[in-house]
Design goal:
Blueprint: H1 2-33, E1 41-50, E2 68-75, E3 83-90, H2 94-101, H3 128-139, E4 144-149, H4 156-164
Parallel strand pairs: 1-4
Antiparallel strand pairs: 1-2, 2-3
C-alpha cells in the first residue's frame, strides 16, 4: 500500500501543478474580459504553516520544532480565492533515517535512493522569504504578482519582490 501511495503521490503532484497552471491561465482570460490593460497582473494572499508550532521547541531541542513548511498563495482577484501556487519544504526522509540507524553517514537531500526531503536537516523551515520566492517564481511563469497580502511580522513579501526581478 505504501508503494502504491508513493506512485499515486507523484501523479497527484503533477495533476495539482497542471490544475494551478489552468487556474492562472483562466485568471489571464478573466483579466482580459474585464478590460484590464495588463491581463497578467494578479493580487495574491499567502502564508506559510508548519507541521509543528515553531514556538514549541524552545529549550527542548537544539533544532527547530517544525520539520515541514507548507506555503500557499491564493489569487485575490475573484471571490473564489483559488490556490495558484504551493511549495512544501520537507526535512523528513525515512530512507535517510534508516541508513543513519545502520551507521551510514547520510547527507540529505543528496543521499542514494529516493529521498523525500528537499532541504537539509539543519535548514531553516521558518524562512518564509525563501518559500514565498519559490512559489512566486512558479506563479510568474504565467502571471505577474501585483500585490501580496500576508502577515505583518513575516518577511514573505521580500521573497515575492526577489522573484519579480
Amino acid at each position: 500500500m505504501h508503494r502504491a501511495a508513493g506512485n499515486v503521490s507523484e501523479a497527484m503532484v503533477a495533476l495539482n501543478e497542471k490544475d494551478m497552471h489552468d487556474i492562472r491561465e483562466k485568471i489571464k482570460q478573466d483579466n482580459r474580459l474585464c478590460g484590464l490593460k495588463d491581463g497578467t497582473k494578479v493580487n495574491v494572499e499567502g502564508d506559510t504553516c508548519y507541521n509543528n508550532p515553531l514556538f514549541n521547541s524552545g529549550g527542548h531541542t537544539p533544532f527547530q520544532g517544525g520539520t515541514i513548511a507548507f506555503t500557499t498563495m491564493c489569487e485575490n482577484n475573484t471571490r473564489s480565492k483559488r490556490i495558484i501556487g504551493v511549495h512544501v519544504a520537507n526535512k523528513l526522509c525515512m530512507v535517510a533515517s534508516r541508513l543513519r540507524n545502520q551507521g551510514i553517514a547520510v547527507d540529505r537531500p543528496n543521499h542514494d535512493g529516493k529521498c523525500t526531503a528537499n532541504m537539509s536537516e539543519t535548514g531553516v523551515t521558518g524562512n518564509e522569504e525563501k518559500w514565498n520566492e519559490q512559489v512566486a517564481r512558479k506563479i510568474n511563469t504565467d502571471l505577474n504578482i501585483a500585490s501580496i497580502t500576508g502577515y505583518g511580522d513575516s518577511k514573505g513579501h521580500r521573497g515575492v519582490d526577489k522573484a519579480q526581478v
